[in-house]
Amino acid sequence: MQLLLLHKTIFPQHLQCIDTMKKFFCFIYLTCQMLPTSAQGILSLDSCRALAVANNKELLISREKINAAHYRKKEAFTNYLPKISATGGYMRNQREFSLLNDAQKSALGSVGTQVSGALQNGIQGMMTQYPQLAQNPQFMALVQSLGNIDIATPLNGLGQSLVDAFRTDTRNMYAGALTLTQPLYMGGKIRAYNKITRYAEELARQQHNSGMQEVILSTDQAYWQVVSLANKKKLAEGYLELLQKLESDIDKMIAEGVVTKADGLSVKVKVNDGLSLSRMLLCQLCGLDLSTPVTLADEQEDDLLPTPADNGSIDMNSVYATRPEVRSLELAAQIYKQKVNVTRSEFLPSVALIGNYMATNPSVFNSFENKFKGMWNVGVMVSIPVWHWGEGIYKVKAAKSEARISRYQLDDAKEKIELQVSQSVFKVNEAAKKLIMAEKNLEKADENLRYATLGFEEGVIPASNVLEAHTAWLSAQSEKIDAQIDVKLTEIYLKKATGSLNIEN
Prior knowledge:
Blueprint: H1 2-9, H2 20-34, E1 42-43, H3 45-55, H4 57-77, E2 83-92, H5 102-109, H6 111-129, H7 137-148, H8 152-165, E3 172-185, H9 189-245, H10 247-256, H11 261-286, E4 295-296, H12 316-322, H13 324-345, E5 350-361, E6 373-383, H14 391-458, H15 463-498
Parallel strand pairs: 1-4
Antiparallel strand pairs: 2-3, 3-5, 5-6
Helix pairs in contact: 1-11, 2-9, 2-10, 2-11, 3-9, 3-11, 4-9, 5-8, 6-8, 9-11, 9-13, 9-15, 13-14, 14-15
């Protein structure tokens, strides 16, 4: 709207004083010449959108969130599959375990001596009790033969071997196990968790789409702002050319003091700041260096020729299906619904199949041996919650409340989106009407300027009238540019409201 200041400046009460305006618009002309109009390349709207989407850090983050959600979904699926784990350990004990006490060890180690002594004591007792046995030569021969046989030593060795056989040697202990666990029934927790991760991945995608639409919307706004200011810059340059043709009348304006150099400097700063800052914003959105000279494709167009959007038949069900915000809330509602199942599963029975192979050293499968030996086993493990003072009921009810909150948020969002679409349709219609009025005003301004120019060339109309007609034309042309840009932007807002805004359109 920088040209409004220009219009106020060139509509003084003394239109016959024109000379000062030459210097006034020379400032604008020099400023426009200093603006970066030579670009290294011409960027179209689609190019700016693609650059902005590719370089936006928030979109890069949301893409990584999609990747993270995808891998969490894969991780959740593994809960259906059996898990195998291996464990091992070593332990050094100060003392070894003993199956025999000290008295038993001593008795077994001297069993031969005890048997030999008991035998001799028994023979002596028999001879004392039956003296006539000493007169029996056969009995005495047997006693003599037994006395010549050493039975204590071998029996003592046999007893010691038994003591050694019962030794465990458990000061160094090794153990290892290979365990397989296959869930059979976990109360529905695994199935619910898989659904949650699937919904979470889709939710991350919808949030990425929503962010991408915001980036596209910001890029389009910056793009058309630059185009608008660039077109108004061309209008200012054309007006300056007119003033240069009216040199004699400009001197009179200078003498009257209608405008000053300070006025020209103020306009210079506004024009320079407006266009330069808009270009810098667009460069920042596109990921370009802020000092990069850029030229937009639509800057070269004399007439933007916008096509008003067709909003005659908008199906709200289709809008709800395409709006990422609605889809995100629907997915959130599904996630909360599955969280109810997860909470409930914590208080339901769980069943799992267990398989093991265990090995130890020392082993006890063939007495105690310092060898690795093992065995396998299979079984079923069942866990049944019995009593938790109503904890499960309260948790499930809380989860259900959260699920209802998500549904209410979805309904509220749909109502707001319907209102947003209605407002966008209204703004599109108003922008189309505004453009029609601006085009009619421009036609009248064209006609007035044509008559004024012909009259000036014939010498029947003063230069001040030509200047006034051209100023009116300038204002009408500026209004038309604003109306065209407004049509473009309201169309974008409508696409954003209906969820159809993307790089292709």
